[in-house]
Amino acid sequence: MSQEKQAEFLAENIKLKNTLNVINNETLSFIARRQYISDYIRKYREKILEEYKDDEDKVAEYFDHELYVKEEAYSTIDRKLKELTILKESPYFGRINFEDELSGELDNIYIGRFGLTEEGSYEPEIVDWRAPIASLFYHGGLGKAQYTAPDGKVDVDILGRRQLIVKKGQLKGIFDSAIDVKDEILQMVLSSNSNEKLQDIVMTIQEEQDKIIRASRSKTIVVNGVAGSGKTTIALHRVAYLLYNYRKELEGKVLILGPNSIFMEYISQVLPTLGETGVMQETFTNYAIEEIGLKESIIEYNEFLERVIGGDKEFIEDAKKKYSSEFIKELDDFIAYLEKNHFTFEQVKYFDEVIVDIDEINELYTNYYAYMPLFRRTQKMKRIIESKIKDKRNELVYKFDKELADTKASLSEEQLALVESDMDFRRNIRIREIVRESMDAKKRVASFLDNESIVELYKKFIKKERLSVFDLAPILYLMIKLDGKKAKNQFRHIIIDEAQDYSSLQFIVIRELTDCKHFTIVGDSNQRIVKFTEKAPMLDLCNVWNEKDIEHYELSKSYRSTYEIMQYANQYLNEEKIVPIVRNGKPVVTIKAESDEEIRDAVVDSINEFREEGFESIAVITKDVDELERINKIVNDRIHLFKFDNEYVIYRGGIVIIPSYYAKGLEFDAVVMIDSDKEEKKEDLIKYVISTRALHALTNVKIK
Ligand SMILES: Nc1ncnc2c1ncn2[C@@H]1O[C@H](COP(=O)(O)OP(=O)(O)OP(=O)(O)O)[C@@H](O)[C@H]1O
């Protein structure tokens, strides 16, 4: 280390000690605050209990109130204490010094996972990575730059950018960036072994990624990026960024939709390590089933993909149809058909009197409530007619009672004494008749105004009893159009991951159901295992949603895989793709294996070599479950592989064997790809997905 560097290192060490002191003091101060609040609550509680010792209701009411106050008071303190505990290990990872172009003032900020300002001070000790000014750090280079402060854009000149590695409160290294120096920490992070779960990347977010993370909240953004370009990671960091900057508006109102439970589990750690909990994360299937309230079992995503990959022609045709725009048109026609034909109105009679005639009913239907969704409208009409029946019932009862009272009044006391009990008896009979007629009239109204359940109607429409995952969006569409359905929870921002597999209808349904205006949609149009339409609907959202304000981003660098792996994977795509180099690795190996022995040797030897090279997470990836079973049976006596054969398995470490569609979105240090295709297709998106799961090493075992 040069003398100058040594001096810098020393200075940073002193700064670190100071910061750690501030962290310690702040921690003690927050603990004291917590203690103060709990003492206060305790004393107040004793007073209340004494005051209301004979009033249980008041005591219960007090405890409800106390719980609320505690939650409110502690939530901020506990959040801060959690942040301080994390900061204690590593308070910051970046430093930027810059000159404000307007004022000429020099500034020096340290950027960390969370922000920290000492009590009584205005100068932040650490700036949260999500704060607007921290974007300067992610510009990557030195020189002129700009950030957006709350009161407008600020021009600065970045004079120095430093990355710092602090582990367990110790300074381990400093790296200064010059304009063209490669990001050394990024290289270090990318070359290391992958973890069991997706990690945060606050230290090494790249400029192209940062732009997406910080994109305006009020825009819908669509990111189409190659495998491993960080789409999932960015989407999750964007959630953390949005929550930090718009907590009041967005807390509890963000939804993340992912493809399956394995994937949801894989990404589950990122937001908590960024200090964010309480974001709803769901698969589209579960979300839709919950909203529909569907109780019956359906053909789930895995079976759907198994059938498609297995070449079940009838099923593929059916799926293709359900994904098409023509099908939306068919649904609309079906709705129009129901509007014309589903209901046959009848006049409503009460005894022999017509109380609502056909014209009146038609008027309600075609005119007065025509703006309402069909089934809402008929239910509304039902309520109106029921209320008329009730009025009629009351009128008849009133009339009868009035006549009875008049008759009674016209009788002498003696006459009344003779007939009164008989009159009362007759009254009871008459009232019962009137009430029964009211119930019968309501039943007659229900018989022509109630509708069949939408799920049942849909089944008749598609002429099938068993539903599949791709039927969920159409059912929701009918519920929206026929019933005016709205989602149980309202969301202000929705993230859709692996969006390349969404149909236009899914996009329409999510938007209409939730009334959400802002989306972050990420996917890779080349990772569609099933290419139902030429253009992935996620790339055509301005037409699908009929909205102009959509911002599109493309990402072409893979931060996951080596240059060699990406280059290899690209042979499976139709188009020639340029692979930007992020890092190099070893060449991809191809082994031909015909007999079971050869297959066993190829798979087991590859795994053993990977282990010897120090790779920790290793996967054998097959096309589908049948192939998984076949390979597992062949290698079983030599090696134990952990089978991911359904989406609810709980991974407990070890080498895995997994079908392509569950591996989507995941990554492994090294991958053995099972390639059983007899002939090479020009485009093979399944093999593209499989090969891009590997970070450092890939072996293709070609079998017959
Ligand atoms: N700026 C970065 N710094 C460090 N690691 C990064 C960066 N960007 C992405 N990565 C890493 O690259 C890998 C791929 O990221 P991620 O899974 O988010 O990509 P993806 O585009 O969603 O991939 P896929 O299309 O396969 O689902 C992850 O290990 C992630 O941590």
From TrEMBL:
One of its GO terms (biological process) is recombinational repair. Residues 204-562 form the UvrD-like helicase ATP-binding domain. It comes from the Bacteria. GO terms for molecular function: 3'-5' DNA helicase activity; ATP binding; DNA binding; hydrolase activity. Keywords: ATP-binding, Helicase, Hydrolase, Nucleotide-binding. It holds the Pfam family UvrD-helicase. ATP binds at G225, V226, A227, G228, S229, G230, K231, T232. GO terms for cellular component: cytosol. InterPro entries: DNA_helicase_UvrD/REP, P-loop_NTPase, UvrD-like_ATP-bd. PROSITE patterns: UVRD_HELICASE_ATP_BIND. This is AAA family ATPase. It comes from Inconstantimicrobium porci. The lineage of its organism: Bacteria, Bacillati, Bacillota, Clostridia, Eubacteriales.
